[in-house]
């Protein structure tokens, strides 16, 4: 049982350290919406989402007032549309995306995730239709987010899908070039995607989930930073213990909010995702945590070790605070959403290659990185393949959310707005990888995948 006293203990964290519940995400199954007729399917989807999430936003706002905890986003994730719409006779799922957008606006959520396909081993007809619909779908909608899982530790990497996604990302950038190619900020390519992730743009409601659940994502980089300032100069054991204790307190806040939201909505509680997701605000930065840990800038030698410490101890603290910690819990390193990361890029301390090394130990991967609009589709596919290989071999979730900004080159700034922030366009290795990417087929799973 969690008492209000535990939340009151965190008031200082909220007022001074940017602690927030980053999102309450309602996962909704669309499996019972299946129909061969697009119009009937879309009506079923709209009706189910608006019925299920009718009180989601109001409940979040009520909990904010009651507990004094900012709840930044209220979101929805749905069954991957390539599965839910698999029976529809069509050659495009863009109308489905428009209905998802309409339903999201009707209930007032910030984003809706699940315009997704799971193709780690191969593509069905529905998967292919969905992937080819992504550029237009993200151009004509505001709140729809898309993801494609191209690999897993058990299946290997679908290089045909990787190659296709290089092209799809460039098409999406071109379709939204008047807005700095922002469509790509709503598109994630995964390896080992999880079914209960409440964070966008990669959230979807997995087929192993219940009919409807409440997942909560909590974020507190500023809280961790302030706690570490109090033990500056101490040894690594003290450092790790401080992170664990602080992560425990932060997770308890999310646990209380999740339980109360579940009770009021009459929807089962799913998981707490404790992810240190930064914002562009000063004091809410992963890079600033690195500096408190003793690094001059993110990207300096020792950065990967510092991130490993942070990620591991956040998880250790979180799992002691809740019986159901899931999602992508750990530390995110999105460049555009972290002013410290942006500064490190501008100073030359942080490169794409260093970020890739850091993804071996972080919670996700190459996230919210602006690259030149002239980058080839083969190079983007190569970046995806590298990141998927890290996830496959290390049995962890990795992802790529890169934004080739049409008309912009290295060093120019791009403004996305809101939590998406702003970013300098980063340099990409210009050596050709097309001969590798164009081989096609599937990279086999590593030997450790055979565990049965």
UniProtKB/TrEMBL annotation:
Coiled coil: none
Pfam families, per the entry: DUF711 (PF05167)
InterPro entries, A to Z: UPF0210
UniProt xrefs under NCBIfam families: PRK05313.1 (NF003700)
Quaternary state and interactors: Homodimer.
Record-stated family: Belongs to the UPF0210 family.
Name recorded for this polypeptide: UPF0210 protein PGRAT_20210
Species classification: Bacteria, Bacillati, Bacillota, Bacilli, Bacillales
């Amino acid at each position: 049982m969690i008492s209000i006293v535990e939340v009151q203990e965190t008031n200082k964290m909220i007022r001074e350290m940017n602690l927030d519940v980053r999102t309450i995400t309602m996962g909704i199954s669309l499996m019972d919406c299946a129909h061969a007729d697009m119009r009937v399917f879309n009506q079923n989807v709209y009706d189910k989402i608006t019925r299920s999430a009718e009180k989601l936003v109001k409940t979040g706002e009520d909990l904010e007032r009651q507990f004094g905890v900012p709840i930044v986003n209220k979101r929805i994730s749905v069954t991957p549309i390539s599965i839910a719409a698999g029976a529809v006779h069509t050659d495009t799922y863009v109308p489905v995306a428009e209905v998802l957008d309409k339903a999201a606006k009707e209930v007032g959520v910030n984003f809706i995730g699940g315009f997704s396909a799971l193709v780690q081993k191969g593509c069905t007809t529905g998967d292919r239709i969905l992937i080819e619909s992504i550029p237009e779908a993200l151009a004509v909608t505001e709140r729809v987010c898309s993801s494609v899982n191209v690999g897993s530790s058990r299946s290997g990497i679908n290089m045909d899908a990787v190659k296709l996604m290089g092209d799809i990302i460039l098409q999406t950038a071109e379709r939204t070039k008047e807005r700095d190619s922002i469509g790509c900020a709503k598109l994630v390519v995964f390896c080992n995607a999880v079914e209960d992730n409440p964070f966008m743009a990669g959230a979807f409601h997995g087929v192993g989930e219940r009919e409807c659940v409440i997942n909560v994502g909590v974020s507190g980089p500023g809280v961790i930073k302030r706690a570490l300032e109090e033990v500056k100069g101490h040894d690594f054991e003290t450092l790790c213990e401080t992170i664990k204790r602080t992560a425990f307190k932060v997770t308890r806040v999310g646990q209380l909010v999740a339980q109360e939201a579940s009770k009021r909505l009459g929807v089962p509680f799913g998981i707490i995702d404790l992810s240190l997701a930064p914002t562009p605000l000063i004091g809410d930065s992963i890079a600033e945590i690195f500096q408190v840990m003793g690094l001059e800038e993110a990207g300096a030698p020792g950065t990967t070790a510092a991130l490993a410490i942070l990620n591991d101890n956040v998880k250790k603290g979180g799992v002691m605070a809740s019986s159901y910690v899931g999602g992508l819990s750990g530390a995110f390193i999105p460049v555009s959403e972290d002013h410290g990361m942006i500064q490190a890029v501008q100073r030359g301390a942080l490169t794409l290659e260093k970020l890739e090394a850091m993804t071996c130990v972080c919670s996700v991967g190459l996230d919210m990185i602006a690259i030149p609009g002239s980058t080839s589709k083969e190079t983007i596919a190569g970046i995806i393949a590298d990141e998927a290989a890290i996830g496959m071999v290390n049995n962890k979730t990795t992802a790529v959310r890169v934004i080739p900004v049409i008309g912009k080159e290295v060093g120019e700034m791009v403004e996305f707005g809101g939590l998406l922030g702003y970013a300098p366009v980063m340099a990409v290795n210009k050596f050709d990888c097309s001969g590798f990417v164009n081989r096609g087929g599937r990279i086999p799973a590593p030997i450790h995948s055979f565990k049965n």
